[in-house]
Design goal:
Blueprint: E1 2-3, E2 6-7, E3 13-14, H1 30-42, E4 47-49, H2 58-67, E5 75-80, E6 82-83, E7 91-92, H3 96-110, E8 115-120, H4 129-141, E9 145-151, H5 155-162, E10 167-173, H6 182-191, E11 194-198, H7 210-219, H8 223-234, H9 247-254, H10 263-269
């Protein structure tokens, strides 16, 4: 499918999990993190999602270490707008001056001159979203950002954002076990905007659903594969980005792209 003019395979990779515990600090095995990223590309991934707050900063550094110079066609999406004063904290900072500085940091760490998809990670309640997105539009005009996306937005906020920027994607929490952004997904479908579900496996909760286990047993697949296949079938604008620090789990997740669930199975999962 396409995110604006970016042609991607619909099953991407969320790189958040290759950092240390609590998405904080470096991984215990840096070489293993590199291997996971390299294996993702071998399995057909050409869309990687990250953020400057993962680590913080570590995630972007790992991607560049493992994959730069990047192969043609690889799309790397990153995000700015959350800061990490300590491991448990994710604080919004949508001030234009912060976003300008955050973008420069991401460009440097990823070793690129332009970010393919730069996403506002969350709305800062202390800053009008128009001001935050305005800084991103300025960066786009300067050639530092190719496309703009948003994350953790509701429909009303998305419509406000679209008056400021050409928004090409929305990244919200969504899985079989959490449909709270169903209205946003439907709105994205109507607009032809890509929808990137974060926590696409519900942080494991979707895998424990009885109906998921039942279908997995029936089709001889794992619960994770069924949950991902359901997302792929759910909407043509859906771009799941399951993440893991394990090569075995990565290979399991990517195999879901080949799983076709019947209408009956999809109905049973609803």
């Amino acid at each position: 499918m396409k995110i604006a003019d970016l042609e991607i395979n619909r099953l991407g990779f969320g790189a958040m999990r290759i950092c240390g515990p609590q998405i904080w600090g470096p991984p215990k095995d840096r070489a293993q993190a590199h291997r996971v990223l390299q294996r993702a590309l071998e399995l057909g991934v050409n869309f990687i999602d990250t953020a400057d707050s993962y680590g913080p900063y570590v995630d972007e550094e790992l991607i560049a270490e493992a994959l730069h110079p990047y192969p043609k066609g690889l799309v790397i999406a990153t995000k700015g707008g959350l800061v990490r004063p300590s491991a448990p904290r994710w604080d919004e900072n949508g001030r234009p001056e912060h976003l300008r500085k955050a973008l420069e940091g991401s460009l440097k760490r990823l070793k690129v001159e332009r970010i393919d998809l730069y996403q506002l990670h969350a709305i800062d309640p202390k800053v009008p979203l128009e001001e935050s997105l305005g800084a991103m539009v300025e960066a786009q005009r300067a050639g530092k950002v190719r496309h703009i996306g948003v994350s953790n937005f509701n429909v009303k906020q998305l419509e406000r954002a679209r008056k400021v920027a050409n928004v090409v994607s929305v990244q919200n929490k969504y899985s079989l076990d959490d449909r709270s952004s169903e209205d946003v997904l439907l709105h994205c479908e109507k607009l032809g905007i890509a929808f990137l579900p974060w926590y696409p496996l519900g942080d494991g909760s979707a895998l424990r659903l009885a109906r998921v286990k039942k279908i997995a047993q029936k089709v001889k697949a794992t619960p994770a594969q069924v949950a991902i296949a359901w997302l792929l079938a759910k909407s043509p604008v859906m771009v799941p980005i399951p993440g893991t620090g394990s090569i075995a789990h990565l290979e399991e997740n990517m195999a879901a792209a080949r799983l076709r669930l019947s209408k009956e199975d999809l109905a049973a999962l609803e």
